[in-house]
Amino acid sequence: MEYQTSPSRAHALRRRLALAPAHAGAPVSRPAAEVTGPPLFGREPELASLEATLRRGAAPARLVVVQGPAGSGKTALATELHRRAHARGIPALWVGAAAGRGRPLLPWIEAVQRYRRGLDCAPGQMHELVPRILDHAGDRCLVVVDDADRADVATLDLLVTVATSAPRTRIVVLSRAVNPRLGGALGEHLEQIERARGCEFISLGPLSRGAAGKLIAHLAGREPTRAELDSLYESSAGDPFLLSELTHGLAAEPGAPPAAAPAPVPATVRGAIGLRLAAMAPEARAAVELAAMFSGEFAFHWLRAATQMPDDELLGCVEEAERAGLLRAPSAGRFDFSAPLLRHVIRSDLPDARRALLHRRIALSLEGVAPAASADGARELALQYQASASLPGAERGIVYAVIAAEHARRSEQPAAAAELLELALDLLGDADSRRRAKLLGELARAQADAQLTDAAICSLQRALAVLGDCGGSRVELAELAIAVGGALGGPFTVSDALGRAPIPEIGGDPAVAMLRARLDQVAREVAWESSGFLRVARIASGEPAARELLWQRGTDADCVLAAQAPDTWSEGELSRWLRRIDEIRDPHDRTTALLAAGLRALELHPSPELVEWIPSQVERRAARLGAWQAFAAACALRSITLGRAGRLAAAHRLALTACELASQTGGPLITPPVAQLVKWLLEQHLDPDHESLARRAWARATEHRPRHQFTIVFACLAALSHARAQDPRGAELALRDAIPALERSQPRERGFGCALALAAETAATLLDVPLAQRLEPLAARLIASGAGDFYMTQRELTLARIERTLGREEAAALAYGRARVALHPLGERPLTAIVDYEQGTLDHARPDGNESAPALLEVAHRQFEQLGMTCWRERLEAHESPRWRPHRLTSRQLEVLRLLATGLTNREIAERLVLSVHTVDRHVTDVYGKIGARNRAEATAFALRRRL
To answer: How far is 702 from 719, CA to CA, in rounded Å?
Structure first.
């Protein structure tokens, strides 16, 4: 629509403009009440791009279109641009396009009147008046058109006139439409402008997680907790408007419960969503309502089948929903709601009966178009039948849930498989007990793969009970337990489940020999033995013939069962197992097999290449599977590798990570105690708080129902820590229960060698001869058994400490020598340094070892310093004998060196020590000779380096 202006009226307008006061770039800003939208957080790139329009030269400027749903921050962004233009003296017009509905060109009239107070404007003058105002303001004028997608045609016509007649004017258009080019009046007018001067589009998407946290903190007046941020961000998908409205319900006190999202939803959010829906055509509203029934992202042909609408008509409805900011297209042919909260509000506003009917409508329509064999189709069908479970025929969703669960398991998503199998059980109800027992068994396996051990044990117990109640045979019970047993982490954890539903013996039919061999691995008897405050697990050894049968004739799962047995392996068995791993195809079985190999390697000291290869393989596969307990175990294995190489600080950090992961998730119950033990064995060699370590280790040893095989180890570690803290009474109390339990253990039981080593070190620290006498036969049994050494232990070093405590110096010296020979090819730097230190102190007391002691102690001192073994270095330096000093420095020479390092002169040192200057000069010369220093600077550096 065009408006004509007479020549006389045009002359009056020109005169009025000439007489009007020149604002010289001082536009009238919008009233504060008109500035809407959340504060600017996370919009720095978009603001920088907009501000660049203010710095452009005289060349024609491209029109900038800022597009985004309501509340995304368009107005706040343009308001900040308006403020910056004002600060630079750039004139600006703000055109609120939505305000002119029903009155053509009213937005432009109001904008001009705000710019020139008292200016009387009529609609017919606008097409001439606005370009003249912009021409009078200069080349750098800024025009902001807000809510352009809601403007009338006359307002948009004038926008085209301004854009074509004032090419140097900076124009910013704000549009709620996700894509303004998708038709409509705005799209047609932008097409005309783009041909004349070009358009630049800036889309305001969701905020990043960091920006969302800043916005929430700003609105709530405090930093949100992690749970609050997760809840709000997930519900809003980063939408600034939804975030702002949901944050209003956030309690201001720290530590208050997280905001309830998506329910209850603030009325402002419901109202805003209702307005968006009300502005849509009835057909589009119906399509959006039906789309809200999908569980998540959906395909276009799924919605077409549910709505029964022609493609063109449905596409128009979807595009209208996109323009309203309700739907988005994450990929070609697929759609989803812009935020989960939108789906929740639309769905929750419907009556329960109508929701159930819509879900069943979708389920029936999808059966014809969504391939049930596909993962997405089967999952959606299962969820739709579950949502309409109040209607008859919901059990049809069971088969789809099982298919989807199998897809999830094959794609290494065990947690999703477990959820789908629980859905199938809900749909099944109490009917068909045998089918229910099968589903419970599959659920237990999925939960075990997802590291949800406690839940898996509970599901297995339920499955066995249901199968037993419906008359299942002993073979069926055994097969069910075996199917789940391997994934649960071996016989030790499975025994808890089988304890309440014992499986009777199976007959001696040769046809079930393999079944009996499998059962031998998952149903071993576990006896809990009480020893004072300690509760120790005794696991019956398996039959060697049964394990050999599984090795030779069993499947991959059978071999994994055999590998998880608690017995100690030989090096030959480990090599044989590593060759077998390459043949395993199932990803979970392969990860479990690698983890079993890594745990065996703790005691067998394989090659460095193999030690590095196993943890890296487990980490990579566990991370892909989401098996965080296995990942924690891999971190513990890598920590051991670093610790043995002498990188104790890095090993301690990695062990701490393993402990945190193991404590935060469920999983194989062997992982948390192993990670904790590795961490504490490292701590005792660094700079430990022995009293604290003693308390923590004893608490771990006496915890309620400990479900691991390291109870005695933790008790012995507590005793050693008490001894290091000079608390012999505490050590005695800890060992009072541990030693009898250790004497009843077998050398090849897991943890035996480590517990014995810690007890022997306690005896050596306290010079406890009776304790050493009790430990001597245990050490002999350990060496004769051929069992491997655990982390930070060595059997010959254990024997040497016992012999030394008993006063057998010659036997102790020989044992120290054998320990050094065994440790050298393994690169065990910490233990090698300890052996040097202990043998050096022993040799000093022996007439034939007096010459070798200083050299051993010097090497030990250097290693302790390099490895960061602070407590051991301090222990060495605390000795008073001059033969133990670094570089054979005497006590007086060491004293002179320390004073010299403080910067004192020889005369000042003489005065301090009450010596003559000549004597001090001689001591300084001797010190230089022994440490290889040429001057005071080098001597000072030596003292600082050695921390003397």
So the answer is: 13
